[in-house]
Design a protein that fits this description.
Mannose-Binding Protein A, Chain A; about 180 residues; globular; CD209-like_CTLD; 2 domains; alpha+beta; 11 strands; 8-stranded mixed sheet; single chain
Amino acid sequence: CILKYEREINRRTELPLVSHLISHHSNSEFIRNAHNTEFSFVSVFIFIPEDCRYFHFSFYYISTEKKSWSESRKFCTERGADLVIINSREEQEFISKAFGSSEAWIGLTDTEKEGVWKWVDNSTLTTNSALNVGFWKSGEPNSNVGDEDCVATGEGSDPVGNWADYPCNHQFVWVCEKRVFD
């Protein structure tokens, strides 16, 4: 799987930072415009050797190691992606099938305000929208052990209704998503 990040950068202020970040990814290739102007167009290709899947105009990286929610998100964003935002029943079923019965972090949290669930793109999970009702396991979310502000999919055997809230420092595998048309 190859994730590609492109944008125009200021050569004076941003190029040193971008070069530094890329040099820390041994599986990365850094390509930049050689024009002697203030701005350059930068393309970064990040090659992910692990499992990567494609579904409805998104690439999904399926991790094999376990991290906290914030560490998982950092892993995704450093590669030009983010934790998955589940937009449909079909996508939920796809993610469940990819993981089987393993719990995995998704990009949903209520860390800003208890009970107000937001995706990593800052959109709100609502209960009155046909496409955005959530796929909670029965009895979830429940903040069962107190501070459960992050969401994992894969809780239980139901391939659709299997989201549960957990403490964000809990260690799970995760799903990164990179939309093709971002």
